[in-house]
Write a structure and sequence with these properties.
Largest sheet: 6 strands, parallel
Number of strands: 17
Structural class: alpha/beta
Radius of gyration: 22 Å
Strand order of the largest sheet: 5-6-4-7-8-9
Shape: globular
Distance between the termini: 56 Å
Amino acid sequence: MTIEELYKIYLDNPNITTDSRNCPKHSIFFGIKGEHFDGTLYGDKAIENGATLAITENSLETLQKLANYHIRQLKAKGLKVIGITGTNGKTTTKELVSTVLQKKYNVLYTLGNFNNHLGVPLTLLRLRPEHDIAVIEMGANHPGEIKDLVNIVEPQYGLITSVGRAHLEGFGGFEGVIKTKGELYDFLREHGGKVFLNTSNEHLVPIAKDIETIPYIEGKVEECNPYVKFSFSGSHEDVTCQTNLIGDYNIVNLLAAATVGRYFGVSDEDISAALASYSPTNNRSQLMKTSKNTLIVDAYNANPTSMAAALDNFKAINATQEKMVILGGMGELGPTSAEEHQKIREKIEAVGVKTVWLVGELWGDCTFKNVDEVIAHLEKEPLADKLILIKGSNSQKLFKLPEYL
């Protein structure tokens, strides 16, 4: 069966599933083989459960080709596609951009962390002719991954939020991070696309040569105690916006969204209203007030760049409660792990927080070996009347802590 023939079947059966237990009417099942499962064994079960068609051979490659063919058809009819990647801030930026654009357009955007070789094609195959703009997040932890994803997505616009010291083990060092994220720019350069560019980022400007760029509009943080209040250059006068985001480092993400909105004709009033309405989820810079403490929970991910930024922001917050930090280890740093963790220890000292709990053996000399030890301690000796920053890689599972604080 050719992709063209498969596409005709897809148009009549546009529900894509990779779960043989969940095969709604008019669905196509793709049996994907993963590290802990083998969907190729469940084609017959998928048909029994209602799928019109089950694909179990070369299924991932076929899924990716079908997604690419689909988005090409929609682009030919006017769909605009924005590809977003970056070390830090890509998910928040994706959601902010989408929130702004939804003020004027029918937008489809990546849900959750569906930003890899499987999640991206599944996202593209949710697109329908009524969508005006697609905002697609792309993640990577090895060289070449962004290139592979961008060749499926084929965006006309691109945005790299940042390049930082994350996944150094997989990328082979910081230069590998820059090169891999820059694969988005490489595609746009080759295909006449456009880049939304943070012109103050010393790592992004050099790799954006020979591409049409749309510089971020100017803006600044007005207040961050703890929520970010910022202003940006409006069409006629500066616009001030109170957000629900924690962390002055989010200013670049907010300005990115405002820039994209302005480019696509969203009014300053609607840009401001959209950014003011957005509230983060999934343990990304969330402010939580419990009966005992106030928490800043940023436990979805952590790397040296984002950890340092979170600590700087925490230092700047004026608080009546005593401050403390609970930090999980930072994974995938390879040979530089001990050095990077030591730098964060030094950063903590500079912040001047008295109570510091380091969780996980990646710290070397840690306070607790794992989150379960933290929970056991809290059950015996509860904390009260504190402002607590909780940050660590998702693998450290610090997201379990709020209910005990």
